[in-house]
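Could you join me in thinking about how sequence relates to backbone shape in a protein? We need material for that, and I hope you will provide a protein of your own picking. Once you have written the record down, we can walk along the chain together:

…
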Amino acid sequence: MSTHPFRSLSLGTSRRVAAAAGVAAMSVALLAACEKPTPVAQLTVGDRTVTSEAACYGHGEPLAQAKLMKCLTKSDAESITLSPSEELRIGVDPDVADTGWYLLVNGNPYYPVKIKDTYFTLKGENVLYDQQAGGFADKVRIQIVETGAKGKQITGAEGVWNFVVKGKS
């Protein structure tokens, strides 16, 4: 005569098992409803680093033009302080480097060619110098714009990261 495997469990144990199964099922459902994490980018000056997830990310799909413009104008951004004599190091996730990215300073391309490296270094004096004002800026917006493997222009953007670099004397 065979016995049912759960017959030996007490009523309290059965309820705990059922509750644990319910919690596990709800956890999976909640995780499925969350957005996928985005790759991160970071700025480093000396021993200080700020890291940010993307302001917008298409997960392999180009961002619509309206969404791209909204992402490029977002005001919330991580910030770091930089003096003209220091170096600014920019780092991106290897997946971003594989597809390529552009560096924008105050909304303008800093380097005309798509960057395919995981890091890029700039001299503080080059980042902070404002040609129109003829001196160093108090604040500069730095943006990283990932383009897809097929994208050759910023309009094919798949991700945008925003930072603010504050100048110091």
